[in-house]
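Researcher: Structure for this, please.
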Amino acid sequence: MVPAFSRTRPAAGPRAAAPDADRARPRRRPGDGPGTRTRTALVTGASSGIGAAVARRLGAEGDWRMVLTGRDPVRLRKVAEDSAATAFAADLTLPGADRQLADFALATVGSVDLLVAGAGIGWAGEFRDMPPHSIGDVFEIDVLATLRLVRLLLPGMVEAGSGRVVLIGSLAGCLGVRDEAVYSAAKAALGTFAEALRYELRGTGVGVTHVVPGVVDTPFFDRRGEPYRRSRPRPVPAERVADAVRTAAVRGRDEVYVPGWLRLPCRVRGAAPGLYRRLAARFG
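Model: Predicted structure, token format:
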């Protein structure tokens, strides 16, 4: 079993103790020959859902060396075995966990070519009923933990003159979704961060991709406290989002919607917000 950070902070010192990661090295794969540079990746939220699908998608190509992280050590290890990756179970909300993960990834795979930030949680219900600690949890996991990790890995990418940061957003962050006010706000923050950072990195060789999925068939909805009950839009498989992440990373795309038709309501809202709100009030 891969040890995970616990929610209990250590008594001695402000940082969590480093866990013993699953150090089983990836199998030798077709791309690992002399003169061939194997690509490297760090995927967060990889124990389930979109993160796990991304890990398996990249692992299937055979020329990626990966470090995967997530909070469930059992599921994470299974995903790592399936994708020939190295697992590092961690709770990135704990002090020092982001630094330990970044250090471990650099020591394991060398420079990180691709960071896929897939970790995230939600909460469903009216805002006035939302427990105060849940507000902090959503922003800590969905926004702050991601920003801290990007901050640690970005200098190495800039120094190398190449690399890509892929941030998994949500349609909720573009449109705002009823009964998901805080989750919508967190994902909107992530999308704006992606846009601003992209301008800042222009000319460095480092790109930023914002992936905007709609409803995805993952355990996310059960864990947020309310399952998805609407008949439409129908959930898309996590593997479809993983394909989009891989394509965006390889082709250097700035923004990707999954499915693609989701661009339409986002554009309507941007061009005619009054019309969008009337349609949203009528059709939900």
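Researcher: Any notable elements?
Model: The mean pLDDT is 84. The two ends are 44 Å apart (CA to CA).
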